[in-house]
């Protein structure tokens, strides 16, 4: 997968390993309709891994809520066809939401089987973590089904650790984000003494 071209913030043109071009960008309200349509193309296991329970459809209310994140605490990206929002088929969604404590943030990622296995989940996760760091979040976490071994392996490869949550069938993966190191001021300039001083 290779990112190409200079784009607005959080926008990237990406070519997948299969040669397919996609656009990674912030989610838009116009994506609600295409997301509902794309939901019907998902495998039942894909839906269960993202929502942690079976769902037959994505309701208009759910799609509306997903596509209108609160800019104060939420961030969501889509990987879609390089077409205008509302026309583009959405192949992946990545979302992160800051908890009420302002220190923790929960992530969720769904990559459809049409674009799975091409590094897209890793790419999106890195973008979510980068956003969280910019918001001074100290901990990023997500609850993953125990059977979702690919997601657990991806999280582990990015430095996430497992944390028990006491709920059967679920595993919590957690990434601790160290605070930024304070910038050390440059040393004062050397003073030259006049001759004979």
UniProtKB/TrEMBL annotation:
Sorted UniProt keywords: Transferase
Q: Name one GO molecular function term.
A: acyltransferase activity, transferring groups other than amino-acyl groups
What is the name listed in the Swiss-Prot or TrEMBL entry for this protein?
Answer: GNAT family N-acetyltransferase
Q: Does the keyword Transferase apply?
A: yes
Q: Which residues form the signal peptide?
A: none
Chain ranges of the N-acetyltransferase domain: 22-178
| Species annotation | Thermomonas brevis
**Disordered: annotated span:** 177-197
Domain of life of the source: Bacteria
**Which InterPro entries does the UniProt entry name for this protein?**
Acyl_CoA_acyltransferase, GNAT_dom
